[in-house]
Amino acid sequence: MQDILPPDIYLWQKVESVAREVFSSYGFRELRLPVVESTSVFTRSIGENTDIVEKEMYTFMDKGDRSISLRPEGTASVVRCYVEKNLHTLPSPQKFCYSGPMFRYERPQSGRFRQFYQIGVEAFGDPNPRMDAEVIAMLRQCLQKLGLKEITFNVNSIGCPECRPVYREKLVDFFAGGLDRLCPDCNRRYHTNPLRILDCKVDRCVEMRKGAPRVTDYLCNECKEHFNKVLSLLDVLGISYLVNPDMVRGLDYYTRTTFEVTSSNLGAQNAVAAGGRYDRLVKEFGGPETPAIGFAIGMERIIELLKNSVAHDFPTPDVFIAAIGELAARESIVIADRLREKGFWIELGDDDASLKSQMRRADRLSSKYVFIIGEDEMNSGRLKWKKLSDSSQGEISMFEITDFLLQKSV
Ligand code: ATP
Ligand code: MG
User: What are the CA-CA distances from residue 205 to residues 61, 186, 199, 377 (Å)?
Assistant: First the structure.
C-alpha cells in the first residue's frame, strides 16, 4: 500500500479530470459506492475459482459476525447497487462510472499493490455491439487525451454459456496429456477453471499452451456475429487492435467481448486497463436479464506510463510576496488574501527573514513572480515585481495587481 504525494498527485488529478471529461461526453454518470461489501457480493460474481477470490481478498468478520470484504474490484459493487436500487427501472442504457481504491492481497511486486486505484465504467441494458465499440472508443479517447502512445488494444470473445462449454471440453482434452508440464496453479485450474490456464503468466504454461484450441474457433453463430460486428465498428473508428484468443480475463462473469489495453513501456505487469461484457451478472444478482459491459483503468500503471513517456509541467506558485518589516507584512497578507480569492496561488515570505533568504525560497518554489514590499513601497503605494524565469522586473501600483497578473496571463 502506498502513500501518494506531490508531485505525483498532479498526475493522478490529471488522469481523474481527463477521465471525468471524456466519460461525461459519453453520458456516463458517477456512482460512489462503499469500499466494503458482504463477501458474497464478490464470491458469487467474480467466481470461487479465480485468483481474486481464492487468494487475494481482504476478508474479515465484523462485530456482528458477518463476513465482509474490502472490494477487490468495482463491477460487482456496481451491479449490486444497480439491482438493489432498481436502476433497471430507468430507461436503458444506464451508464455509470466510478473511481477509488481496490484491495487485493497480492504478492508484492512491481506493478502490483495491495491497495490500488481504478477508474471504471459500466453500461447496462444494451446488447448491441455498438455499445462494445463505444466503450472501447471511450477508453481510447482517455488514453489519447493523456498523450499515451505505444498502447495495444487486445480484444477477444469468450463466448456465452451456449458455446463456451464446448470450447472448455476441447481445452481439457488438449491439456490432458501435459499436466506434468503445467504449474501447480494450472493443475488446479485444469479441474476447476481450465480457461484460466490461458491467462497464466508462468513461462512453461505459456509454452505449453501454444497450439491450444482457440476460443474464437468455437463461438456459436450469435457470438461470432456479435464479435465480428464489434471488430468492424472498431475498424470504422480507426482503432487498431489485436485479436488475442488467449485473453480470457481473470474473472468469471465475462461473456462475449473481452479486452485489455497493454503497453510495451511497462514491465511484466503490462495491462493498464481491462474490461468486457457481462450479460449474465445482473440476473445472477437477482435483477432482470440485463446485458452489460464495462472496463477499469489501473491508475498506478497509467501514472507510471505518464511519468515515463510524457513531459509534464507541474503547477508552481503564481506569486511569492517577500515583505520587509511589520507594516509590509500586514499589507502582504491582505494582498495575498485578495489574490487567492481570484484563484491565484500565492505564497508569503517569512518577514522575519532577510530579503535574500525570502528570494531563495521563492526560487526553490519556482514561483512565477515575486512581489517585493518594503517601507518605500508602502509609502509610494507601488510594489516591485520580478519574473524569475527571465529576471525581468518593474513596478506596479498596489491597486493594479490583479490586472497585472491577468495581463501577464499568469
Ligand atoms: P493482472 O493480470 O495484471 O493481474 P487483473 O486481470 O487481475 O490484472 P483486473 O481485475 O482486470 O486485473 O483489473 C483491471 C486493471 O487494474 C489491470 O489491468 C491493472 O491495470 C489494474 N490492477 C489490477 N490489479 C492490480 C494491482 N494489484 N495493483 C495495481 N494495479 C492493478
Ligand atoms: Mg490480478
Answer: 36, 8, 9, 76
Answer whether 22's CB lies under 8 Å from 142's CB: yes
For cell 515515463, the residue is: 308
Strands 319-323 and 346-348: parallel
Predicted local confidence at residue 184, as pLDDT: 94
Q: How far is CA 146 from CA 18, 149, 305, in A?
A: 7, 9, 10
Q: Which ligand is nearest to the CA of 271?
A: 1
As a whole number of angstroms, the distance between CA 242 and CA 66 comes to 44
- What pTM, to 2 d.p., does this model score? 0.93
d(CA 346, CA 340): 6
Classified as helix, coil or strand, 51 is: helix
What the block records as the C-alpha cell of 30 is 458517477
pLDDT digits (tens, 9 = 90+) for 16-48: 999 999 999 999 999 999 999 999 999 999 988
pLDDT in tens, 244-275: 998 988 778 899 999 999 998 888 889 999 99
CA–centroid distance, residue 92 to ligand 1 (Å): 29
372 lines ligand 1 (CB under 6 A): no
* Most confident range, picked from 175-179, 297-301, 304-308: 297-301
Task: Give the residue whose CA is nearest to atom 28 of ligand 1.
Answer: 112
Reported residue count of the chain is: 410
Nearest CA to ligand 1 atom 10: 73
Is any atom of ligand 1 closer than 6 Å to the C-beta of 116? yes
Backbone angles phi and psi of 156, in degrees to 5: -155, 165
Q: Are 195 and 250 in contact (CB under 8 A)?
A: no
Question: What separation in Å is there between the alpha carbon of 55 and the centre of ligand 2?
Answer: 10
The span from the CA of 67 to the CA of 97, in Å, is 27
Atom of ligand 1 nearest to the CA of 113: 28
Q: CA angle, 274 as apex, 86 and 138 as ends, to 5°? A: 75
The answer to whether 135 touches 275, Cβ cutoff 8 Å, is yes
Choice from 42, 102, 115, 302 to test ligand 1 binding pocket (greatest atom count within 8 A of CB): 102
Distance 104 CA to ligand 2 centre (A): 8
Whether residue 7 has a cis bond before it, omega within 30° of 0: yes
Q: Which ligand is nearest to the CA of 55?
A: 2
